[in-house]
Amino acid sequence: MTAQMTDVAIIGSGPAGYTAAIYLGRAGYRPTVIAGALTPGGQLVNTTEVENYPGFPEGIMGPDLMDAMRKQAERFGANIIYDDVVSVDFTGNAKTLTLDGADTITARAVVVATGSRVRKLGVPGEEQFAGRGVSYCATCDGFFFRGKPIVVVGGGDSALTDADFLSRFGSSVTVVHRRDTFRASKILVDRAQANERIALRMNAVVERIEGDDTGVQSVILRDTVDGSESALAANGVFVAIGHTPATEFLDGALQLDEHGFIMVDGASTHTNVPGVFAAGDVVDSVYRQAISAAGMGCRAALDAQTYLTDLG
Ligand code: NAP
Fold first, then answer.
1. C-alpha to C-alpha distance for 12 and 253, rounded to whole angstroms
2. pLDDT (tens digit, 9 = 90+) per residue, 261-281?
3. pLDDT level of residue 47 (50, 70, 90 thresholds)
4. Are 110 and 239 in contact (CB under 8 A)?
5. Residue 287 near residue 9 (C-beta atoms within 8 A)
6. CA 261 to chain centre
7. What is the arrangement of strands in the sheet containing 229-233, beginning at the earlier edge strand?
8. CA 178 – ligand 1 centroid, Å
9. What are phi and psi of 268, to 5 degrees?
């Protein structure tokens, strides 16, 4: 068991965490990044081609982008630890993080950038066809389904925003929702109803996703009212049933909203605890893009820098 001290610790190694590390490193702070034991690099490590991150006109593979961000952070002195934070103590001026192996890190400032995980359907075919028709990011993958039938699963703002976006590409877009009313805001429901390329299939759940060597071919739906099953042709299945922010380890140390996302003060990255900042998908349930997370990581670094300068 070791106890390390650092000026600033960054929890998380997605675009927000590494961007914060690059900025704080260049400011001379030698930040400690606790990158996670199993999935350093965050959600982009499970993505294939990233075509919308500025600066890469030919696109870049998600893992390559995260590798480059890590190297850039290390170049400016970031110390990267591949472990998980299991608990925190933010009560004093010195913030203590306890890692899985019981090592501790004490920091004067902390940036929480632990991201979120997509909720999965948990049905047969979902894992098998992930990246071959099953997607969790319409903005990232919609382009690949030009002229193809698309299914969007979910009934919230994300599902209907995704359906609207995907209707530019798909030959048809069918939103499959498990109830007879949408959770999404009225304006999005009205827009979907008025869009002739969007069909709304209510009271239905996806039982399984079927396909072949070329990818997804159909989804099997079960009607939640009469129990009947039917097949719906689909080459793209976009799952938009929400995200779970990775905030369990905080155990009440920071103020969260009703969905578990960390609350920050206005457009800043200040949490309710002085010296603790938050950035990326662990805060943002709306935009959730690599570039918006990176931008917020930059802001967290600048907020943390001001805080550390004021501390003296
Ligand atoms: P959400 O509001 O939690 O909605 C999730 C939807 O998925 C719900 O309709 C839910 O059904 C359904 N669902 C959950 N688990 C399911 C399962 N296992 N099988 C089938 N369906 C399932 O999540 P979200 O749509 O991602 O939105 C998250 C937050 O971001 C919200 O605050 C939202 O307002 C915001 N947002 C805003 C915009 C915008 O303003 N343009 C765009 C995107 C997101 P039930 O309704 O039956 O629970």
1. 17
2. 999 999 999 999 999 999 999
3. low
4. no
5. no
6. 11
7. 204-212, 215-223, 229-233
8. 12
9. -85, -175
Which of 52-56, 66-70, 285-289 is predicted with the least confidence, judged by mean pLDDT? 285-289
Buried b (16+ CB within 10 A) or exposed e, 269-291: bbbebebbbbbbbbbbbeebbbe
Write out the two tokens for 239.
């799952």
> 125 to each of 238, 239, 274, how far by Cα in Å?
13, 13, 46
Block residue for tokens 């009607």:
223
Number of other CB atoms surrounding residue 93 within 10 Å: 9
Q: If you measure from the C-alpha of residue 123 to the centroid of ligand 1, how many angstroms do you get, rounded to a whole number?
A: 18
- Give pTM, 2 decimals: 0.78
Q: What is the DSSP string of 21-35?
A: HHHHHHTT---EEE-
| Core vs surface per residue 26-39: b (16+ CB within 10 A) or e | ebebebbbbbbeee
Please write the tens of the pLDDT for every residue from 89-139.
Answer: 999 999 999 999 899 999 999 999 999 988 999 999 999 999 999 999 898
Ligand 1 contacts (CB < 6 A) are 119, 121, 153-159, 161, 178-179, 183, 205, 240-242, 285-286
Please, are residues 84 and 36 in contact by the beta-carbon 8 Å criterion? yes
SS3 state of residue 96: strand
Q: Which amino acid is at 90?
A: F
- Residues with a catalytic annotation lie at 137, 140-141
Taking the C-alpha atoms of residue 299 and residue 143, their distance in angstroms, rounded to an integer, is 30
